[in-house]
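Service request form, structural biology core

Requester: graduate student, group of Dr. S.
Request type: structure prediction, single chain
Budget code: on file
Notes: please return the result as structure tokens.

Sequence provided:
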Amino acid sequence: MEHAVIEREELFMMIEGGKSAGENPAGKLYTVADIEALPVGERAELINGEMFMMASPTLTHQDILGWLNMTIRMYITNNKGECKILPAPFAVYIKDDIHNYVEPDISVICDKEKLDEKGCHGAPDWVIEVVSPSSRHMDYERKLSLYEAAGVREYWIVDSEQRNVTVYGLEHKEGPKIHFFSERVKAGIYEDLFLDFSELE
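Core staff response, request fulfilled:
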């Protein structure tokens, strides 16, 4: 099957960091095939056929991502848990269709039937996004709607600029609950996992 290739000139016309690439003149929706055809080193996400280019993460973003991954992974390992934690870059075919593809900063997936070597096919149980200056609108609005519609059970937005964590218990239609970095924040999908964000202060 022939795939549409997005040329580098077209990429530069796209607005970086969570802004839409827009529809092409024919009104075609982008697909996972277009993501796979991107030049090496270019990353993007799809929401309902709209493509959003991803900017390089900041040092602060990566520090927080590393801490989240280590802390949650240690909890799962120490408790002999069945769920898997997978940090970005990791492919999530969030609706298991051709028009939606994301790379959450943290994905916790408890149904291993959703996993294969390509990524996760369907909604993770718990998603965490670490806000970057360029991803604020994407994380707080577009991805919230997508994750809720797709069946993500719990969604956290970690905002280093505001020094807070916004928690949505999507499974039970709860949220948003805002916690400051000075607090311990409980994970809804676990009975006894608390993340002490004061360690980031």
